[in-house]
């Protein structure tokens, strides 16, 4: 086998380049490991949520997959920094009782769960400002946990036969498609600003109020058909408006980021 000789200076430069490349790779790996470290706020909040969750499990004896979901959220949440993000993450935990109560038609308890979820949605931004740590990650996490909670709630209601399946799918698509669009933009090397749009916030409030209202009315043994009919009209329109607004917002933000 023929080998090409390399002169002394060239060999030195090649060795330096190799060393720098190795150092850069080590730094990238180290940065990844540091970014994935456990967060004190995440661990503390996760333990607190698990204590409450285990008490709920002991009382209600839910299916195994719901128990597994609680522990999965606790593990993932332990790597998420920030007190406000832990408040937002409460909705991912609340998705478990929401699904369980929706399937079984325990509407009084379900209405309480929806109310608590709505409260965390109002409080997390205040907590972020209080601790002086509002972040783009928090802005991205908020609609994700909204989607997890709303999706679980509506799937449970659809499985229980209390709302049409197509309406549950519209609610899931309301949160899933924007998340996929944002992920594709990030994967393509663009830098969209991940946060709620105004129409997104309005649609979330409408879904929470209308679906939560259906749960409350049923829990009080009141006729919820009028509210459900309103939900079947308003939620698809609000979802479509969110898509249109989000499309324009993403184009504008990506364009500004690329220009910068």
SSE order in H/E notation?
HHHHHHHHH
CATH fold label: Four Helix Bundle (Hemerythrin (Met), subunit A)
User: What overall geometry do the principal axes of the alpha carbons give?
Assistant: globular
Main structural class: mainly alpha
- What's the main sheet like? none
The helix content is over 70%
Terminal CA distance reads 51 Å
The quaternary state of the protein chains shown equals single chain
The percentage of residues in β strands lies in under 5%
Number of contiguous helices: 9
Chain-averaged pLDDT: 79
CATH class: Mainly Alpha
CATH superfamily, please? CDP-alcohol phosphotransferase transmembrane (TM) domain
Domains counted in the coordinates: how many? 1
Architecture in CATH? Up-down Bundle
Alpha carbon gyration radius: 23 Å
Weakly predicted, low-confidence segments: 1-34, 256-260
Count of individual beta strands: 0
Notes on the structure:
- The chain is an all-alpha fold and 260 residues long.
- It has a single domain, classed as Up-down Bundle (Four Helix Bundle (Hemerythrin (Met), subunit A)).
- It is built from nine helices and no strands.
- Helix 3 (64-77) runs antiparallel to helix 4, helix 6 (136-159) packs antiparallel against helix 7 and helix 8 (198-219) runs antiparallel to helix 9 (225-259).
SSE layout:
Blueprint (H helix, E strand, L loop, with lengths): L7 H28 L4 H21 L3 H14 L5 H22 L2 H24 L5 H24 L5 H23 L10 H22 L5 H35 L1
Helix pairs in contact: 2-3, 2-4, 3-4, 4-5, 4-6, 5-8, 6-7, 7-9, 8-9
């Amino acid at each position: 086998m023929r080998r090409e000789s390399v002169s002394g200076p060239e060999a030195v430069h090649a060795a330096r380049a190799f060393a720098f490349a190795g150092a850069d790779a080590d730094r990238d790996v180290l940065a990844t490991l540091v970014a994935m470290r456990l967060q004190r706020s995440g661990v503390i909040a996760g333990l607190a949520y698990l204590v409450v969750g285990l008490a709920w499990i002991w009382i209600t004896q839910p299916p195994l997959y719901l128990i597994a979901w609680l522990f999965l959220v606790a593990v993932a949440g332990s790597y998420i920094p920030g007190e406000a993000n832990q408040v937002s993450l409460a909705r991912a935990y609340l998705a478990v009782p929401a699904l369980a109560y929706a399937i079984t038609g325990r509407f009084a308890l379900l209405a309480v769960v929806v109310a608590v979820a709505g409260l965390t949605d109002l409080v997390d931004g205040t907590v972020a400002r209080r601790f002086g740590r509002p972040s783009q990650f928090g802005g991205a996490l908020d609609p994700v946990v909204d989607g997890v909670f709303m999706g679980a709630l509506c799937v449970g209601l659809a499985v229980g036969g209390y709302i049409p399946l197509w309406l549950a799918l519209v609610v899931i698509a309301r949160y899933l498609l924007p998340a996929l669009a944002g992920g594709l933009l990030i994967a393509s090397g663009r830098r969209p600003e991940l946060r709620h749009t105004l129409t997104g916030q309005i649609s979330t409030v409408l879904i929470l109020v209308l679906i939560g209202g259906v749960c409350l009315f049923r829990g009080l043994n009141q006729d919820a058909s009028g509210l459900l009919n309103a939900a079947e009209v308003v939620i698809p329109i609000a979802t479509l408006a969110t898509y249109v607004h989000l499309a324009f917002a993403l184009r504008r933000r990506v364009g500004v980021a690329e220009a910068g």
